[in-house]
Design goal:
With 82 residues, the chain is an alpha+beta fold. It has one domain. It is 49% helix and 15% strand. It is built from 2 helices and 4 strands; from the N terminus they run E-H-E-E-H-E. The strands form 2 sheets. It has a two-stranded antiparallel ribbon with strand order 1-4. Strands 2-3 form a two-stranded antiparallel ribbon. Helix 1 runs antiparallel to helix 2.
Length: 82
């Protein structure tokens, strides 16, 4: 596999920094909310909007956002078969 713009792959080094920043933000927000009673994050389920109080759900969100960022960076590098 070759890449049309392999310089974009250097941006993958920023994904752990993004993950660290997201997890730090979640911890700070949890601490400010006083244990999650007044969570500022909202989840949308179809037509319902509800507060997201569970910490594991927020971590999953951060993990999936990191995966999406990494895949987006690889897509910008334009992988080519052959």
């Amino acid at each position: 596999m070759t890449f049309a713009s392999p310089d974009w792959l250097w941006a993958l080094a920023l994904v752990p920094a993004f993950w660290w920043g997201a997890s730090r933000h979640i911890r700070r927000e949890q601490r400010e909310a006083g244990g999650g009673d007044r969570a500022r994050w909202l989840w949308v389920d179809g037509s319902r909007v509800r507060p997201a109080a569970d910490r594991a759900g927020r971590r999953r969100y951060g993990a999936w956002a990191s995966v999406g960022l990494a895949l987006g960076i690889v897509a910008l590098a334009q992988p080519q078969w052959g």
